[in-house]
Amino acid sequence: MEVLLFILQKGGVGKTTSAAALASILTQVHKKRVLLVSMDPQRNLDIICGAPIPRGSEQPSMYDVLKGDKHLEDIFVQTDVGTLAPASNLMYQWTGTPLLSLEEYRNLCGDPDALMEQLRARYAQVTDPMQDDTHRLERELKRMAEQDRFDYVIVDSNPDLGYLTTLSLLCWPELKVVIPAFAEESSREAILELYDTIRVLERQDFNRRIEILGFLLTRYENVRIHRHYEKFMQRMAKKMNTRVFSTHIRKCVAVPEAMASKQDIWSYAKSSTAAQDYAAWTDEILQLLGG
């Protein structure tokens, strides 16, 4: 089972569009078993997949999985794009299990021994890789791998470098990272910041490998400024021991139209230039992964 994470803290670069397009083409064209994990509380992936969760809904989501209240299979929604583990706007609130909640403190403040015992037990929990929050998604995905339920897992991260992004980067011991980006300065700077974050996480766990599979240039136009920054990206990719994908996703009006129609670009307009680019890029991904 291959796990791919689409990530960049800069919003609007086509991260969710690319994740959904890859999943749709893998599912519909290549007949692969695909799981999409939505880690973005904005829930754009859920909308594109045709499975939006109304605000305030009690439908189980990744929020419940991250808290440890549900297993992944408990929240699955079947879509034409693949099996979806939907997000929730409540994920904005999740910063991990506290060492001591206010309610626990109020119940135990009159008993110092019981209070210290609670703190010891909670500290043991949050620092144990078999119980802690930061590795919970990894443990869930390992269960999926043991059950041989999926060929590919595609994780759509949120557009920042906060706690949810860290959880996404720690979701698999041999993670493949795809970085959608524009051929412009702001994307270049964002990639450098992300690269620093990835290296820090790898240094903290020598058994973890976070491989940057490549930079995917989106909304690309064959104009001088884009060609200029593409060369920058090529040099930066070489220093990071990765690549700029050969396939670029050309700027195409069908992409925002598909978003407005709450569909992925492949399902919405297969003959569009963007959809054809995504199909060629999927072939490139499969060749790299040997799939």
TrEMBL record:
Q: Which CDD domains does the protein's record reference?
A: ParAB_family (cd02042)
Highest taxon of source: Bacteria
Start and end residues of each AAA domain: 2-212
Query: Which InterPro entries does the annotation name?
Result: AAA_dom (IPR025669), DNA_Partitioning_ATPase (IPR050678), P-loop_NTPase (IPR027417)
SUPFAM superfamilies in the cross-refs? P-loop containing nucleoside triphosphate hydrolases (SSF52540)
Gene3D superfamilies the record matches: P-loop containing nucleotide triphosphate hydrolases
Q: What is this protein called?
A: AAA domain-containing protein
UniProt organism field: Butyricicoccus pullicaecorum 1.2
